[in-house]
Design a protein that fits this description.
Blueprint (H helix, E strand, L loop, with lengths): L3 E8 L5 H17 L8 E6 L4 E7 H8 L4 E6 L2 E4 L5 E5 L2 H8 L10 H5 L31 E6 L13 E6 L12 H10 L10 E6 L6 E3 H18 L3 E5 L1 E4 L2 H12 L3 E5 L10 E2 L7 E7 L3 E2 L11 E4 L3 E4 L7 E4 L2 H18 L5 H11 L1 E2 L13 E2 L3
Parallel strand pairs: 7-9, 7-11, 8-9, 11-13, 13-15, 15-17
Antiparallel strand pairs: 1-3, 1-4, 2-3, 5-10, 5-12, 6-19, 12-14, 15-16, 18-19, 20-21
Helix pairs in contact: 5-8, 6-7
């Protein structure tokens, strides 16, 4: 019996999916009848926005499907994971205790170094502490009341965390039937950096949880493609200005890049973590997808974080080391994390903030704005020629 594995099949743009599906089912019946195979084809997802599907296939069928003129390609269903390092300390609720534990200053309702850094031109003073909560950030007021939808494609979001002020809702879970809860904490941390009242950049944006990763912070490419496909469908219905934050990544995968680029072409602004391998982002997905805003990480001294990927596909850098944001042990919990996972929501928040003022800005125009308004040449340790030396600014 042929070994069964999960694959993603992309069809050519002009191919009718139902016709291809009929052919595939006919092929399966023929093979079972001739005893060449006893394995039926199991289609797990149909991707309407990608003209493709994921399926559980035997190795014997993969070659036949790959060779069919309908098919653009057949790709293994690879694993993807969150782009975060271990937490800096445990989750806490008491700011004074947090300050004592880390030997830093705390100002009531002060915020993180990352938020202050993206809202000022100058490098932070040399004695600045990255775990202090005595920094200042205020989102500029807007005359417009445009509501922006921020899709957090991640481990879920703790909807009742106080930092979300009731603006967080559950969108979808993949695979279907999975828990509608953030059982890892990563998605909640990311969401609060995008749009939390205290920890976030865009403090009035809507947060929509799209759970595609498990409690361990990993998931399959097929589930993530399904999650993005869902975002595209919802965006087409609401027509609201929309941002997707994907603080996740894995090895280069053509199907994942394709759906990320399709989301951009549908009008959604897609922000993606560059990855934490200290390597060229060209080898990662969805960070290498066309049209997305790929984000590298910096630390408080205006240097590329050593873990951050680099390369021409990086569009900008943002604070990503020792970033404090919401936790999940209680509705008021907070915790510090490191990673390009933490840098990406700073950019997603800036995008959401700008969409509130100019909701008709296209993804291409937004990318140009992000790069043209960034601080140029201020970062050290960029590592490779061709990596943009651009520091995010609100």
């Amino acid at each position: 019996m042929s070994q069964l594995n999960s694959y993603i099949v992309l069809l050519k743009d002009d191919v009718n999916f139902d016709t291809h599906k009929d052919w595939m089912q006919s092929l399966t019946r023929q093979r079972i009848a001739s005893t060449l195979s006893s394995n039926p084809v199991t289609i797990n997802y149909e991707y309407g926005n990608l003209n493709g599907y994921s399926a559980t296939l035997g190795n014997d069928l993969v070659a036949q499907i790959s060779g069919h003129p309908d098919v653009e390609g057949v790709f293994p269903d690879t694993k993807v994971k969150i782009q975060v390092l271990p937490a800096t300390g445990k989750e806490m609720n008491d700011e004074e205790a947090f300050a004592r534990a880390h030997g830093v200053q705390d100002t009531p309702m002060g915020t993180t170094w990352g938020l202050q850094r993206i809202s000022q031109v100058d490098t932070l003073p040399p004695r600045s502490k990255d775990l202090a909560l005595n920094y200042i950030y205020e989102e500029e007021p807007s005359l417009k009341k445009t509501k922006v939808d921020c899709y957090i494609v991640d481990t879920g979001v703790m909807l009742n965390h106080t930092d979300f002020e009731g603006r967080a809702t559950w969108g979808a879970t993949f695979p279907a039937g999975g828990p509608q809860v953030d059982d890892n904490g990563h998605g909640t941390h990311v969401a609060a950096t995008v749009a939390g009242k205290r920890w976030g950049v865009a403090k009035t944006a809507n947060i929509i949880a799209v759970k595609v990763l498990d409690a361990g912070g990993s998931g399959s490419t097929s589930d993530i493609v399904a999650g993005i496909n869902w975002c595209i469908n919802r965006h087409s219905q609401t027509q609201s200005p929309s941002v997707i934050n994907m603080s996740l990544g894995g090895s280069n995968n053509r199907a994942l890049n394709a759906i990320a680029s399709r989301a951009v072409r549908s009008g959604i602004h897609v922000c993606v973590a560059a990855g934490n391998d200290g390597d060229d982002v060209a080898d990662s997905s969805p960070a290498s997808a066309d049209g997305v805003i790929t984000v590298g990480a910096t630390h408080i001294r205006d240097e590329r974080s050593n873990f951050s990927n680099w390369g021409q596909a990086v569009k900008a850098f943002a604070p990503g080391s020792r970033i404090i944001s919401a936790g999940i042990t209680s509705p008021t919990a907070f915790v510090a994390h490191d990673g390009t996972s933490m840098a990406t929501p700073h950019v997603a928040g800036v995008v959401a903030h700008r969409l509130r003022n100019d909701p008709d800005t296209s993804p291409a125009q937004m990318l140009e704005q992000i790069q043209s308004t960034a601080l140029s040449g201020v970062l050290n340790n960029i590592y490779q020629p061709g990596t943009p030396n651009l520091m995010l600014q609100v």
